[in-house]
Amino acid sequence: MSSAVAEPPAFEPPKLAVDPMMAEEAPAQQSASTSFSEISELPPLKEVVIRPEAPPPPPPPMAAPVHTQFEGHVDEDDKPKVNPREVAQKAIKEVKNVPPQLMLYSILGAVALILIVTIWLWSRIGSGDDDSGSARPATPVTETQTAPAQPEPVAQSAPQSAPQSAPETRAAVVAPRAQAAEPEPEAPRSAKTRNSKKKVAAPVIVPGQMTVDSTPQGAQVQLDGATDPTWVTPLAVSSLDPGPHSITVSKSGYVTDSRTIKVVSGSKSSVVVHLNQLSATLSVTSNPAGANIYVDGRDMGKLTPAQLSVDKGQHVVLIRKTGYIDETASAQFALGQTVALSPTLRAMGNVDNIRTVGKMKKLFGGNSGQPGQGTLSIRTQPKGAQVAVNQHMLDKGSPVEVMLDPGNYVIDITLSGYAPISKVVTVDKGGKAVLDETMQPQ
């Protein structure tokens, strides 16, 4: 928008008439011819003529009126007068017409609004106390503080009418507000406030490293549930987050080992796992208990009941107890498998009352044994083998017949050049047991 501005007339100093006698530049001939003391009569004064000032030029024609937001403004003097009494009576009448229930809801809403505003102000005051340690009045932000002083373009022009200057005034107000939106520098705070607002720098997390080895080497490594065919011991792992990590080391034929290792930031951890060879388990119980255990002829140094670790494969297990017949078992063992044996031991017979029956006694039906004993007849092919009953050697080779107390007996038959034979025979009271064996040459 633009407006016509009348330029003021140029300033012209007034012209004054000067007495020729008082002028400094008087004619030289007058001062030379006649002096002031010689003048007998003063010269007549000249009339001073003052010219009237020229009238100011007429103002230029006004521009077309500009419509602004201030049009239609009515001064307070032009407003119609309102009678306060009539307004009050009308308001009271309207209040009386309001339903009581609506009035109660309005009062409750106002109370709730007041409570909300009070709680909000209280929280703001509390947060201000926590930040600065003491309540500090907020500094009002004005346009003078936010906007730098600068000459306004309106001041350079001549005064204009209110409708024409309104848009320029509004633009001048919007500019400082836009500048006020920019962040202003933070006011200096006290040392206590600076210390309370100082932020602690977050610690830098440096990844850790870990090496895993095993005895024997070549075991598969599993880290936090993840694995790879190339992860075999010895293994170096880098870029591990600080904290606990689970490790599982496994190898065929060995017991799997699992453990948790804590990795420290920026450090290197080392783990060495000793793997135990995987074996089979032998569980032995006997009746009665307390028998010695032999595996492949080797005394294991344990008494029943017991559990032993054995290698995989075929093994012969012997359970021996004094006064009882040895029990022998053969079993196939696999890695990780448990084989259970529970033999019932048989009591050995008494050999203190053993009697040998001769040929003559057989012919005449004689019997040199005691009442209640039984007969055991042993025959071998070939003849002449040596016989032992419960490790008691007989003084006669096979064939032979003996009288024994009722019970269980171990008969060992040996002959040079032939494989030995071991048998268990049960002799009953008054009964007769026969053992007829054919020996195999070695």
Quick synopsis:
This protein has helices at residues 28-33, 84-97, 100-132, 143-146, 162-180, 191-197, 359-363; strands spanning 208-215, 220-223, 226-232, 235-240, 243-250, 257-263, 268-274, 280-284, 292-295, 298-303, 306-310, 313-320, 327-333, 338-341, 355-356, 374-381, 386-389, 392-393, 400-404, 407-414, 421-427, 432-438.
Short key terms for the protein model shown above:
442 residues, alpha+beta, Immunoglobulin-like, 4-stranded antiparallel beta sheet, 7 helices, 29% strand, disordered N terminus
Structure description:
The protein is α+β, with helices and mostly antiparallel strands. Among the domains are: 91-132; 208-274, Immunoglobulin-like (Sandwich); 280-341, Immunoglobulin-like, CATH 2.60.40.1120; 355-438, Immunoglobulin-like, CATH 2.60.40. 20% of the residues lie in helices and 29% in strands. The protein has helices at 28-33, 84-97, 100-132, 143-146, 162-180, 191-197, 359-363; strands at 208-215, 220-223, 226-232, 235-240, 243-250, 257-263, 268-274, 280-284, 292-295, 298-303, 306-310, 313-320, 327-333, 338-341, 355-356, 374-381, 386-389, 392-393, 400-404, 407-414, 421-427, 432-438. Strands 3-2-5-6 form a 4-stranded antiparallel sheet, with no helix packed on it. Strand 5 and strand 6 form a beta hairpin. The chain is elongated, with a radius of gyration of 67 Å. The chain starts with 27 loop residues before the first helix and ends with a strand.
